[in-house]
Amino acid sequence: MQFTVKPILAASLLALLPLTGFAQSADTAEEAPAEAPAEAAVDASESPSPTGTIPGTDLSAGVAEGEEQKVGQTYIQGEHGDWEMRCIRTEDGKDPCQLYQLLVDDGGNAVAEINFFTVPGNDQIVAGATIVTPLETLLTANLRLAVDGGKGRVYPFSFCQTIGCFSRLGFTEAEVGQFRAGNTARVTIVPAAAPDQKVALQASLTGFTAGWKALVAAAKAAE
Fold first, then answer.
1. Residue 67: pLDDT band with limits 50, 70, 90
2. Burial state string for 97-131 with b = 16 or more CB within 10 A and e = fewer than 16
3. Using alpha carbons only, how large is the chain's radius of gyration in Å?
């Protein structure tokens, strides 16, 4: 069973940004994740600014002529391994950013998308993610996420739009530590047309640690 994926538009990306009081949506767990040590605090100066300033200097890398960003447009601030750090241009320059990656099935076909973001001001949940799957997904079967083939967690779907169906996930510091230490995250969904089948999607965790540091730094700089 092969699904197809539609790119997330800027307007949709805005809808995926962190919400105040974001709560973890993993009500059903297959296994509680093991504790992982938290990494040291990140210096916000390590992350490039939305204007293209090179970290640690007052130099600007500039933008191509005719490619100046407009408010509301999505742009790629940087790449970290297999992850892209995508931001949305705002009027005050405090551009919200997320870590983005396409999810592929075992045949290498792009099927879904995942976006990680920080969750400030929450004592338990430090990170959130939105996974967008095709409209043909069986929502009642939920979504499963595991790292490196270990026991995973089960997450419900929140809503659907024309571009796909959305599942919003919340992660503790220990769970983010699993992503930092892991090699592959595996997302499992069920197609509505074949409820007896499962579609396994792969997300590479190469570059996640560096990407997460940059994301945290950008969030702090925007405060």
1. low
2. bbbbbbbbbeeeeebbbbbbbbbeebeebbbbbbb
3. 17
Decide if 182 contacts 205 (C-beta within 8 A). yes
Residue 141 to residue 69: CA distance in whole angstroms: 40
User: What pTM does this model have?
Assistant: 0.72
CATH superfamily ID and name for 10-34+73-221: Invasion associated locus B (IalB) protein (2.60.40.1880)
Amino acid letter, residue 58: D
Burial class (CB in 10 A: 0-12, 13-18, 19+), 28: exposed
pLDDT, position 72 = 83
DSSP H stretches of helix in the chain: 10-15, 173-181, 208-221
Supply the pLDDT for residue 158.
97
Give the pLDDT band (50/70/90) at residue 43: very low
Bridge partners of 85?
Answer: 78, 99
d(CA 31, CA 33): 6
Read off φ and ψ for residue 201, nearest 5 degrees: -115, 140
Query: 187-199 pLDDT, tens per residue?
Result: 999 999 999 999 9
Number of helical H runs and strand E runs in the chain = 3, 12
Query: Domain map of the chain by residue range?
Result: 10-34+73-221
Q: Would you say 161 and 198 are in contact if contact means Cβ atoms under 8 Å apart?
A: no
pLDDT at 17: 45
